[in-house]
Amino acid sequence: MKLKRTIFFVFALITCTAGFAQLKTTPKCPDFDIDILDGTINKFILPTSTVGQIKLKFPCFTSFEEVGTTAKCGANVFYKDKDIYFYTDRDYVEIGPKFKGNLSLPLIGASRGGLFRVLGNPAIKDVNWDAFQTSYGILILYYNADNRINKIQFSTQSTASIKLCD
Predict the structure, then answer these.
(1) What is the mean pLDDT of the chain?
(2) Alpha carbon 86 to chain centroid distance?
(3) In b/e form, how buried is each residue of 126-152, taking b as 16+ CB within 10 angstroms?
(4) In 21-153, where does DSSP find H-type helix?
(5) pTM for this one?
């Protein structure tokens, strides 16, 4: 009888200890598929999407700020390891030169001179950037010293109303 109690006690102890152990999984994100001409990410996320919608679709974010915070640029969701940033209070998305994902138009690294046939004339032109009017709003392309695209921003705002974060 004593042996049965001892075996039962050891079994119960092992079972209880295992019950407190927790395995944590790393969130798996789908690939970022960005349609530049349509202004969508994975055909669902828009520049006007909320922090909650973005985090639900892409749970592997590196940081975020909720609406109503005192963050300099307002609510946002950042994926620094993938070089894509959502500024939800300002309704725009920013894509950096080390973007890990798919672009419908291979713009990162593209030459400034080859854009006319795809995007037409820019609505506003500057030395370091061009802003193109799109069906959804605006597309801003930034250039490095070699006149190659190194940053993309797209928004539902117009050239007159967009407020970019510095």
Answers:
(1) 89
(2) 5
(3) eeebbbbbbebbbbbbbbeeeeebbbb
(4) 51-57, 116-119
(5) 0.82
